[in-house]
Amino acid sequence: MSEHKVSVIRGDGVGVEVIEEGIKVLTAVGEQYDVTWNFIEHPWNSDYYFEHGRMMPTDALDQMAESDVIYLGAVGHPDLQDHVTLNGLLLPIRRTFDQYVCERPSVLYPGITSPLRDPKPYDIDMLVIRENTEGEYAEVGGFQYAGFEEEIGIQSGVFTRRGCERIITYAFEQARRHDRRKHVTSITKSNALGYGMLVWDRAFDRVAEGYPDIETNSLLIDAACMDFVRRPESFDVVVGSNLFGDILTDIGAIITGSMGLAPSGNIDPERRFPSMFEPVHGSAPDIMGKGIANPMAAVLSASMMLRHLGHDDAADVVDKAVIFLIGQGEILTPDLGGTSSTSQVGDAIINALGKG
Ligand code: NAD
Ligand code: IPM
Ligand code: MN
C-alpha cells in the first residue's frame, strides 16, 4: 500500500467543477490499486482574494512543500485582473518549486471530431515540452510613467544556457521513450529575437549532439503554428519556450477535440519539490456553473500525476477508461458533441475503469 499527500487547489470557475471529478476518479482507482490519498484542500482562489487581499496566504508555498504533488483546477475571475490571479498563485508555484518542465500531450483519440480535415485517430500524437520557469514569463521589466500618456511597459525575456539546456535535454529524453518516435522539433524565433532565442538555438544544437539517435528540426514559431494545423502528424516531441509552448498547446488542444481534453504536468524532474498537475484550460467563465465543463482534461492530468507517483498501471486504467468513453460516444459533455453533465462524465469514467 502507498499513501500520498496531495495539495488540492480547485481554484475558480470550472476548475472547481472538474477537480471534483478528478478526485472521484483518483479515489476509485486508488481503492482498486491500494493507493491511499491524503487530500489537503486549500481554499485559495479569487474569493479568497476578495476576502484577504491575496490569492493565497504568506506561508502557502511552505504548506505545499510538504506535499508529494499538487492538483490544481484553474484560477481566473471576470472581476479580477488576470495578472493578479496568476501572479498571485499559479506562476509563483511553478517557479518556486522549480517545475521547469511543462509536459503537455496532444493526442487525437478515436471518436473525436477534429476541426481539421479528416485526420485519422492517432494521426495527431505529440508531446509539447514547454519551458516553465523563465523565458518570456521571467519577472523582469517594469513601467515608466505608468498610467500617463507616455507610459512605457518593459517586458524582458530571460533565456539562460542552463535553463534552455535542461528543458531541451528533458525533451530529448522523452523522444527516446519506447512509445515515442525519436524526433524532436525545436521552436524558435531567432530571426527576430536575436538574444535569448540565440541562446536557445545554441543550447538545442549542443544538446542534440548528445542524441545522435534522435532526428531533429527547428521551426520558427509562426511556421510551427501553421504546421500544427496543416500537418500535425509531422510532430512527435516539440520543445519550446514558456510563451511559445503556451500558445502551441492551446492549438494542440483544439485540433485534438477540445480544451476540455488537454492535460498537463508542471514537473520538477529532480523531485526536490512537489510537481503540479492541472488541465491546460482556464476557469472558463463562459460555461461555469452550468455543470457542462468537460472533466476529462482534469482526469487525464490526474493520470499524469499517478504516473509521476509511480502508479503506471493505475494511470493506464484511467487513460483507457477515458479513451473507451470517448470511443463509445454516448456520455460526453457538449464540447465533444454530447449532452451529459460534468458529474455524469465523471461517474461514467469510474464505471469504465477496467474497460478499454
Ligand atoms: P479557458 O481555457 O478558460 O476557455 C477557453 C475556451 O475553452 C472557452 O470557450 C471555454 O468554455 C472552453 N473550455 C475551457 N475549459 C473547458 C472544459 N473543461 N470543458 C469544455 N470547454 C472548456 O481560457 P480563457 O477564457 O482565455 O481564460 C479564462 C480565465 O482562465 C482567464 O482568467 C485566464 O487567465 C484563466 N486561465 C487560467 C489558467 C490556469 O489557472 N491554469 C489557464 C488558462 C487560463
Ligand atoms: C496555461 C495558462 C497560464 C500560462 C496563464 C493562465 C498564466 O494559459 O497554463 O497555459 O500562460 O501558463
Ligand atoms: Mn495557456
From TrEMBL:
Gene3D superfamilies: Isopropylmalate Dehydrogenase (3.40.718.10). It comes from the Eukaryota. Its cofactor is Mg(2+); Mn(2+). Residues 5-349 form the Isopropylmalate dehydrogenase-like domain. The keyword Ion transport does not apply. SUPFAM superfamilies: Isocitrate/Isopropylmalate dehydrogenase-like (SSF53659). GO terms for biological process: tricarboxylic acid cycle. The keyword ATP-binding does not apply. One of its GO terms (molecular function) is magnesium ion binding. Keywords: Manganese, Metal-binding, NAD, Oxidoreductase, Tricarboxylic acid cycle. Belongs to the isocitrate and isopropylmalate dehydrogenases family. This is Probable tartrate dehydrogenase/decarboxylase TtuC. It comes from Geodia barretti (Barrett's horny sponge). The lineage of its organism: Eukaryota, Metazoa, Porifera, Demospongiae, Heteroscleromorpha.
